[in-house]
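look at this stuff:

>
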Amino acid sequence: MADEPNAKQCTGCKKDLPVAAFARDRNRPDGLQVRCRQCVAQYSATHYRRRREAEGKTVREKVDVPAGHKLCRICGEVKPHSEWHRNASASDGLSTRCKACRAVRGRQDHLKRQYGITGAERDELLAAQAGVCCICLAAPAADVDHCHETGRVRGVLCFSCNAALGQLKDRPDVMRRAAAYVEGNAWKPTLVAPGVYQLPS
């Protein structure tokens, strides 16, 4: 096979292999690497292991993954490609985390970025509220509520109560008038000119 023009000997395994078994290297006279792809991969894996061990870091073990599947390094599960988001810049065209792990990480990043708290701190708030909204005391708490002026987290509310605070512009005076109105103690505006009303002080 060494006499064939389409064959080359690998300096690693010493086998005569077809040129397709070698990666390109424009610095070589024949334009091919001296080791076959398999030997280069084996050398890279050994070199990676030695370097990681010398740095005191963990070594990722190679996992056999069936075709059409990928290993998620976060949860450690092998999942089909349908469980991954697309990423055109990645070598395999898929995200580095599965959809489930990416969703969890996205929620954690949102809490830290938007409110300056971790998922554990949010869970502590929920536990202190017994898992219910601290305004209506009925619906499950889901949305973190914060002061828009200071950024201070006030608690965890249900969607409706959180939306209501936003609609009332977080103004206590408006909320007090709304409570008085619901209780039947609404203040009546006084007509002082055509189309002009004055609210009681």
